[in-house]
Amino acid sequence: MLKRASLFFVILILTSLAAAEDYGRFDFSLAAAAGLSKQSSGNQVTLKPTQGGGVLVSGRVRFGARSALEFDYSRILNTQKFEAPPFFYNFNTSVREYTGAYVFTPFKTGKWEPFLLAGIGALSFYPRITYLNGVQTIYSSVNQTQFAYVYGAGTDYHAWKWIFVRAQYRGIIYKAPDFKLTNLFTGAHGHLAEPSIGLVFRF
After folding, report:
1. For residue 22, what pLDDT band results from cuts at 50, 70 and 90?
2. Which residues span the domain enclosing 43?
3. For the residues 136-159, what does the mean pLDDT come to?
4. Residue 14 contacts by C-beta under 8 Å, 6 or more apart in sequence?
5. Cα(179)–Cα(181) distance, rounded to whole angstroms?
6. Which band of pLDDT confidence, cut at 50, 70 and 90, is reported for residue 9?
7. Rounded CA separation 177/127 (Å)
8. Alpha helices of the chain — where are they, by DSSP H?
């Protein structure tokens, strides 16, 4: 399934490039984002990430009035909390997203430009401080990167000249991290909901 989805997005991107008009418009956006993670369970291990916040940086290249390619980077801070009785692990973590997506704008009305997006990329987890049963420890943990799907929807509002306001919801599906520790492996998938609002500078 992963290979088929990846192939689908590659074909979609290449088709957009092949059909590109001489549109030449691109934009850059900076947004405040929330990171809302769901619980994952498996192999008698439960992962309960805390909710966090961070930033989302995006660049978008347009290939016509309705099609665009977008590249995103986000950084969310949260705690990955594992329950693997009798042990409980808390990893204060920086979660970073590196994704690319196809963006479709079905229509424009007045100052509003709604859009849909779907793509693939990676979600990287960087544990900074580790607690074992509530006590800070030097327990060995490593950075981990997981393949991810991204989907979402939102709208741009034309505020003034080349400045827009963008509100959107993005969802990221990924394999739950275990920081290469076998006793923390769930085998489950996680979901990171990433609503955001920010400014867009279009050129």
Report:
1. very low
2. 2-202
3. 91
4. none
5. 5
6. low
7. 11
8. 2-18
Q: List the CATH number of the domain containing 16.
A: 2.40.160.20
Cα–Cα distance measured from residue 142 to residue 181, given in angstroms and rounded to the nearest whole number: 9
Single pTM value for the model: 0.86
What does the pLDDT look like over 38-52, one tens digit per residue? 999 999 999 999 999
As a whole number of angstroms, the distance between CA 184 and CA 19 comes to: 47
Predicted local distance difference test score (pLDDT) of residue 6: 58
Residues 6+ apart with CB under 8 A from 193: 34, 35, 36, 37, 38, 169, 170, 171
For residues 16 and 96, the model is more confident at 96
One-letter identity of residue 63:
F
Rounded to whole angstroms, how far apart are CA atoms 72 and 100? 6
> Between the CA of residue 139 and those of 129, 145, 149, what are the distances in Å?
9, 19, 31
Cβ(176)–Cβ(40) below 8 Å = yes
d(CA 193, CA 155): 17
Number of domains in the chain: 1
